[in-house]
# Entry
Amino acid sequence: MKLKGPVDFCIYYRNPEETAKSVKLALKLGFKTVVTSITLKEQDDFKELTTKTNELKKMIKEHGFENIFTRLHLIGSDISWLKSCLRKLRYEFHIISSRPLNVEALRFVARDRRVDSIVYGDRELAKFFDKSQMKLMRSTGTVLELQFNSLWSSTHKWLIFSLRRTLGLAIRNNVPIVISSGSSTLKNIKTPLQLASLLVVLGIPYVYAKQAICTVPLSVIKRNMHRLSKKHVEPGVDIV
Amino acid sequence: MNALKLFIAVLIVELMFITATTSLFIFGLIDLPVFAIFSVLALIMLILTFTLFKLIKMIIITNRTIVKIKSEKLKLKEVLRKPRKRYIVFQIVSEKTLKTEEVKSLINSLIKETFGLIGSGNINAKLISYDEHSMKGIIRCVHTYKDAVLFALALASVKTGDKVNIIPLKTTGTLRKAREIVKTLSID
# Structure
């Protein structure tokens, strides 16, 4: 199995049929690798998550999809809850992403190496994606993720204004950026070029936009595949 | 910068030469005429180095200006060049069939809302053809604003509340090829 770009870093899981259709359409539109995401909120039950995960894995097996990865999307503000989730579920999923709801959680998530990406998507927290946040993210190798569909929802209508500033800070501090569609149905799926156009329209060079949909997500997936393999012991220690 | 470093190095050597001859003269190891000849020589060398440094500096500045003018000319050429056209082949994913007028107004409103009056004027997007049966069509735009059109099309699902999705299939430079793509390419 050879990993190839472009990558849709987030297609939300709703039910097996709809997700299978979405994944098929994404592969048809030019994505070579797709990451299907299951959301977990603070009030959600772990049993429900387990059934969802099993359903998703079964669906992937049934359809014989290659280059499809699973991802856990954590939405919460309680640090202890986030910690327990990461402790229990880190090895169950290929990728762990998070959308923190307060500043403390945002800083914690940036500091934790187990979290792979932080989703930019809260109007009130937009100002806290500052230089110190970027430094923390760079030190742990966490990527800044922009979900195309969630940027335009009615509650985050003005998010786009602070997006340019955040992107500038991320680029200046060498924090990798990933753009994903964040789609859950066939009606809001996007093509790779449409995802890249978001950055191009905001004045970022096309080369960089291309990296955000190809190189960066692929490197995150590869890193995690290595981390989850039996060869990996701890950062810097591998069994040869 | 390198020219300046070279100039400083030569200057130091010359100053050392002057101090050496002066000290030799003071200690009485050389006569006054010899010292005078050496001093004149050192002075001439100093003047020569200074003029050479100025010349090199001038040459560097002129070269830089020439390069700058050339790049600006290229940029201006790119701006003044006749805008090329791009044809974006798209397909609409929707539960109900959309008519040509509806698609036209949707695309126009999307571009106008996203980029404003001036932006939409620059983009100059136009619906060239649309097949209501297959829901596939062609949009023409200026080549420099292709990404802007793709971005505006991506916002269709947001504007219509996930009812209509416009998926760009391919971008070409000729209408003939775009029409061929409409016949062959499909997401169904």
Q: What stands out?
A: Chain A touches chain B through 23 residues (CB under 8 Å). Chain A has nine helices and nine strands.
